[in-house]
Amino acid sequence: METVCAIELRNITKRFGSVVANDGINLALNRGEILSLLGENGSGKTTLMNMLAGIYFPDEGEILVEGKPVSIRSPKDSFQYGIGMIHQHYKLVDVFTAAENIVLGLDEGGRLDIKAANAKVKEICDRYGFDIDPTQKIYDMSVSQKQTVEIVKVLYRGADILILDEPTAVLTPQETEKLFTVLRNMKADGKAIVIITHKLHEVMALSDKVAVLRKGKYIGTVKTSETNPQALTDMMVGHSVTLNIDRPKYDAPVPRLTLKGITCYDGEGVKRLDNVSFTALGGEILGIAGIAGSGQRELLEAIAGLHPVAEGSIQFTPEGKPASELVGKTPMQIKKAGVAMAFVPEDRLGMGLVGSMGMTDNMMLRSWRKGKGIFVNRKDPNELAMQVWKELEVVTPSTDFPVRRMSGGNVQKVLVGREIATAPSVLMTAYAVRGLDINTSYTIYNLLTKEKMQGSAVIYVGEDLDVLLELCDRILVLCGGKVSGIVDGRTTTKEEVGLLMTRVGGKEKAAHE
């Protein structure tokens, strides 16, 4: 079968002030092909794809669709040329049904025939293997169903070139596999697909070719069958990177946090945590594994005083002091009781940072109460911002640049850097490396290990089982709000953890229980 070039980029350059986001990029994508776009955070991947989606317009260079030069000045132009982009953050109206969201904004000529729209949506779903009900409301859907609606939305508009930005960031392994099956069906149907991702094992499993960007420049395109994760990482970073997580043993771990029979309910009265008991030790990383929505978030929020606890006790034992009870205390009281807790939540801009503020001001959120008198001390936060900027290599023009205008990975670096800098006795992180490139992920793993070796109790909620098995000393598995097992990170297997994730009351193999 002859290859047909669906889209070609020639010498594409895009600047934002003094920052060159894309520098003379040349790239081609064929029909019936899945291309992975790889690069570190801030390397210009999303910016490049946003020019195909009509969100930005290139300063230099040209875009060719089917061999003809085109001008894409708006998302409407983009759809006209059959290009559809599925963004990281979904753009859906919660109170509408799937079908209503899909046809929203389309000029259907005359009145909307919702019955016909439902039928067309169902036809697209059946053709590619999607699993959604056109009449279901968005607020009743899981994350993967919302993503499905976004994909069907662009297919409904006739897109045959699809761009997916971090499509698996919030999906479980099972949902990811479902998505990959659908993408392979589309590829077989002659669609051209680009996925922006950081997960190298997914790149190897799904794509035909991999294009690599580094600091806004195009490094090259390789066939997936002719490369490996190590070679791709070296291309992305520009030098050899060790893909090994160091896991030293702390001499004498001591109990820092003891949970007994913790039970929590959500606002609807649904039980989210059911009789959860465990001990987190200073000098270890305790991994929390589980399918999305198994109670991981509620567990961390309950410890941090952000979620009400219905039953049970949470005892915190500081160095050389008696234990104190945390249940019933506010986050501020927990802090005053001497509990140095750093909490990196999964919702970076919603709960962690203020998007309109720069790095310095976001650092100050952690320390503003230390200011004397009416003036807030800006010196310490500014020093901390500079330190995080340098050590974690945050890509930003200055420490006053609004964080919401940074790439997702750089936002995460600011948040994790700020929390670790408080030198906590208990450090809790939820999906600390979600959306981070491989190089930065390893920097964060090393920072967490450093905290552990200084005697902190590190609680790490993660979704990548390979990382949990390499990084953590023990792994607690949650299933439906219950603890289904606590296993030794050094001796357990991926299969054992996977089984515990899907059934409650598995045989408990506790290392320090």
Automatic annotation (TrEMBL):
Keywords: ATP-binding, Cell membrane, Membrane, Nucleotide-binding, Repeat, Translocase, Transport. Residues 7-240, 257-505 form the ABC transporter domain. It is found in: Cell membrane. It is a peripheral membrane protein. GO terms for cellular component: plasma membrane. PROSITE patterns: ABC_TRANSPORTER_2 (PS50893). InterPro entries: AAA+_ATPase, ABC_carbohydrate_import_ATPase, ABC_transporter-like_ATP-bd, P-loop_NTPase. Pfam families: ABC_tran. One of its GO terms (molecular function) is ATP binding. SUPFAM superfamilies: P-loop containing nucleoside triphosphate hydrolases. Its main location: membrane. This is ABC transporter. It comes from Vescimonas coprocola.
